Amino acid sequence: MMKIEGIAAFVAVAEAGSISEAARRLRLSKSVVSERLAEMERTLGATLLHRTTRKLTLTEDGIAFLERATRIVREIEDAASDMAERRGTLAGPLRIAAPVTFGRMHLGPALYPFLAEHPDIELSLDLDDRRVDPASDGYDAIVRHGAIADSRLVAWKLAKSRRVLTASPDYLARNGTPRSLAELDGHRGIFYTNRGVADWRFQGPDGPVLIRARLGLRVNNGDMIRDAALAGLGIALLPAFIAGPAISAGLLTAIDVGFHPDDEFIYMAHPEGRHPSAKLRAIADHLKKAFGDPPYWEP
């Protein structure tokens, strides 16, 4: 008879890409996960995974089995959560991905009191600035900053996110303060690598305007972009949730060029077609209230 523990081990390995990482997520030993996989393959009479010393890949049978196996595991997790919720308890595993800087500065402090109030929730929070796919990477939801564009995701807005052109007083004293979009052309820019291009996008009276400053630095982390601006390396277009404290302290200066960057949001998104659990909805509602409208980090 097929055991749910074996199905869960197979799904975890397929999502994690390795037995060791799956064992870490399941909080089991590698030997136990390997044993459950082997038993699953014996029960099915099929090889689900190709194992080599360098990598692990799904066989054709594994690919065919994965979709239904994932659905089975999710249904059982949701059923267990629903039973807990019927007893007035938010409980069970939850896996969320979020950007590093926002997670450290705002998401973590907002989540800690919620988790203390609901100790039966088993939250795994992965902080990573790369863009992850919640469906294929095995997340219940992701927290992101930016425009809401991915049609495969159902997004819940948590807070507005205003971006601010900013630089250190020292940089502006040496290079002058730009007062128009045209004056930005001669300045050095500090850009966020994960946006893909080194430019600034503003909303003008006739539509979007793209400004390409001289490249001073490209980096894939918001903390380092702020620190580079503090060091006087150039102008950065930073979210207020990163730049706000430094602007309020006078360490960075907000620059007004007469136009605003595109509107963006802090949002939580889950894969389309997946019924969000009560605990996920409860976390989203809690975060929305914790961040406020307008959000508390506005300078």
TrEMBL record:
<dbReference type="InterPro" id="IPR036390">
    <property type="entry name" value="WH_DNA-bd_sf"/>
</dbReference>
<protein>
    <recommendedName>
        <fullName>HTH-type transcriptional regulator TtuA</fullName>
    </recommendedName>
</protein>
<dbReference type="InterPro" id="IPR058163">
    <property type="entry name" value="LysR-type_TF_proteobact-type"/>
</dbReference>
<dbReference type="InterPro" id="IPR005119">
    <property type="entry name" value="LysR_subst-bd"/>
</dbReference>
<dbReference type="InterPro" id="IPR000847">
    <property type="entry name" value="LysR_HTH_N"/>
</dbReference>
<comment type="similarity">
    <text>Belongs to the LysR transcriptional regulatory family.</text>
</comment>
<keyword id="KW-0804">Transcription</keyword>
<dbReference type="Pfam" id="PF03466">
    <property type="entry name" value="LysR_substrate"/>
</dbReference>
<comment type="function">
    <text>Transcriptional regulator of the ttuABCDE tartrate utilization operon.</text>
</comment>
<dbReference type="GO" id="GO:0043565">
    <property type="term" value="F:sequence-specific DNA binding"/>
</dbReference>
<feature type="domain" description="HTH lysR-type">
    <location>
        <begin position="2"/>
        <end position="59"/>
    </location>
</feature>
<dbReference type="GO" id="GO:0003700">
    <property type="term" value="F:DNA-binding transcription factor activity"/>
</dbReference>
<dbReference type="InterPro" id="IPR036388">
    <property type="entry name" value="WH-like_DNA-bd_sf"/>
</dbReference>
<keyword id="KW-0238">DNA-binding</keyword>
<dbReference type="GO" id="GO:0006351">
    <property type="term" value="P:DNA-templated transcription"/>
</dbReference>
<dbReference type="Pfam" id="PF00126">
    <property type="entry name" value="HTH_1"/>
</dbReference>
<keyword id="KW-0805">Transcription regulation</keyword>
